[in-house]
Structure formats: structure tokens, C-alpha cells
Amino acid sequence: MESNSFTITVSGIDGTKFFNLSFRMIKGIKLLLLLFTLVFCTLIALLSIFVDDASDSKREKKEAVSKAYSLEKQLLRSHEFQSDLENNLSQKQQDIAYISEKLKGIESALDLSNDALDLKQRLNNAGLSVAARHQIMQLIPNGRPVKQGYLSSHYGKRLHPVKKIRAIHHGIDYAVNVGTPIYAPADGVVAVTRKSNKGSGNFLRVSHSFGFSSSYSHLKAFKVSRGDYVKKGDLIGLSGNTGLSTGSHLHYEIRLVGRSLNPLPFVQWEMNNFDSIFESNKDVKWDYLVNKIENQIAIALKLSSPMEPISKENSSLLVTSISMGK
């Protein structure tokens, strides 16, 4: 008969002890050992997973901290960039305000209207008007032809100093010393250089733009020849006492297509009193002349494309001439 248990004998100094274990108990112990082993292995696996997760979390945390630091630096740079933009914008706004304020002064001096125009259009108009004025002052006689001397005879009817009869004096006279330099009052081309001991004496005429001409009588010498191009301020001759003359002087005339004009307003004409010429010489069609020059400059500078002809109502240069009441 088979036994359902076995005996374990343990001997020692205290004697011998006997333990009886049944096969059922042994199976239970084996199951407990197996269960313990499974639990232990499971715990080891879970611990390994936890350690891996902790390592991943640490790495992710490190990466997150690095990204946060990088984002913080980018944010700081963005704030600095925004601050620079705001400073630049503030400076630009100050510059625009300064330019606008200065432009108001220019517009006031040029008598320009700035209604319903943006800053760019206002700058274009002001630039066009200034350029047109400078061009006009370069092309049409203005200023004194001599730097020395004084005005000794005016334009108009007078008693001729030699003939002793009343007649129209078509120019003005400057009392100057012989050899006084004479300068071109505008750009032009020398049309006449005529030597003579009669009448106007040594005579010089310069043709300017738009039908204007200037002439110089009783000269001592010419510094230019017929056909020479001259610019405003060029030396063209020396004053003298040739021809029908009672003393050393310069007889100076300005004509428009052959008709004499009073030279004095042209002599007194400067940039700071630009509009004065429109009142003093009403026979000249200043409106057409100024519009022509403005349009030519606008086309050259490409300020507008295409550009409508400037009307009397909006031309800054014609405010006075428009009010002449033709």
C-alpha cells in the first residue's frame, strides 16, 4: 500500500525530530513557491517598467526644460524685437510729424493747398513747385546784371539827356565805372554782338527762354561771341561809354518777343518775393508759362503718370497771376 506522506528527520544536539509532510502539502508549497516566483517576476517587471518610465520622464523633463529655456530665449528676443519695432515706429512717427510740420511751412510759403492730400502727394506738389520756381529763376531774367553802381534812369517817358526831347526810355540805366563786369541774368544764347560808336554803342543781346531777351548797350568789351550759350551768372561783357552817351553807364533792357518791359521788377525779382513779378508784369501770360514748366518738370521727374495739365485753381505759382482779373 502506497504512503500518502513522507517523513523528514532532523537530528541535532537536542535530539532527533520527525516531520510528516503529505503530498498535498508539498503540492501546496510548490504552488506557493510558484505563485511567489510569479509575483516576484511580476514585481521585477513592473519595477523595470517603472524605472524605464522614470528614465523616460526624466529625459522628457530635461527636454521640456530645454525647450522651455529655448522658448524663453525666443520670447525674450521677440520682446526685444518688438521693443525695437516700437522704438522705430515711434521715431518714424516723430519724423513724419516733423516733416509734416516743415511741409506746412513750405506749403504756406508756396501758397499750396493740402486739402485731402496724403503726405506723399503733398511732398510731390511741394517738390514740383520748388523745382518749377528754381527753373523759372534760371530761365527768365532776374536780378541785377551788375554788382556795383546805382540806378540812374528809370523805364518810361523821359527827357533824352543828349537829344533833349521827351521819348520812351525802353530800359534802365546803371551808373557804373568803365570796365564793370556784366553778368547774364538767366540762361540763354548770345544773339547779337555789335560794335558801334553810334546810338547804343557796343551792343549785346542774349535770347532767353519763352521769348524773353536781355540787351546791354554802351559796352567797353564783349566777353562772349554770337552763338555762345551762357548760364545765369556768366560774365558776358564789360560796361563802357560807347555810342550816344553822356557818361559811363550800362543801359539794360528786357523784352518779350521784341516788346520792351520794365526791367526793374525783374531786377528786384528773387525767390523770396517770387509772386511779385505776376503783379508788376500783367501783360505776360504767366499762367501758361508756369503751367508749361511745371508739367515739363513733372514729366521729367515722373512725379505722376499720366499727369493732367495743372489748372489755374491748383497751381501754387499762379495764385497771384490768377487774381489779376484778366
How would you characterize this protein structure?
With 326 residues, this protein is α+β, with helices and mostly antiparallel strands. Among the domains are: 111-139 and 276-322; 150-268, Glucose Permease (Domain IIA), CATH 2.70.70.10. The protein is 43% helix and 24% strand. It contains 6 helices and 14 strands. It has helices at 23-110, 119-139, 263-267, 276-280, 286-301, 319-322, and strands spanning 5-12, 15-22, 150-153, 156-159, 166-169, 172-175, 181-183, 188-194, 202-207, 212-222, 229-230, 235-239, 249-256, 259-261. The strands form 3 sheets. Strands 3, 6, 7, 8, 9, 10, 11, 12, 13 and 14 form a 10-stranded antiparallel sheet that branches. A two-stranded antiparallel sheet has the order 1-2. A hairpin with a 4-residue loop joins strand 9 and strand 10. Helix 1 runs parallel beside helix 2 (119-139) and helix 2 packs across helix 5 (286-301). It is rod-shaped and about 180 Å long. The termini are far apart. The relative contact order is 0.09. Mean pLDDT is 80; it is low at 304-326.
Can you tell me the CATH topology of the domain at 150-268? Glucose Permease (Domain IIA)
Ends distance: 155 Å
Question: What is the C-level CATH assignment of the domain at 150-268?
Answer: Mainly Beta
What's the CATH superfamily of the domain at 150-268, by name? Glucose Permease (Domain IIA)
Shape: rod-shaped
- Main beta-sheet annotation: 10 strands, antiparallel
CATH architecture of the domain at 150-268: Distorted Sandwich
Multimer state: single chain
Taken in chain order, the helices and strands follow as EEHHEEEEEEEEEEEEHHHH
The SS-based structural class is alpha+beta
- Rg measurement, Å: 53 Å
Give helix % range.
Answer: 40-55%
Uncertain segments of ≥5 residues (pLDDT<50)? 304-326
Query: What's the count of strands?
Result: 14
Q: Give me the number of helical elements.
A: 6
Strand content: 15-25%
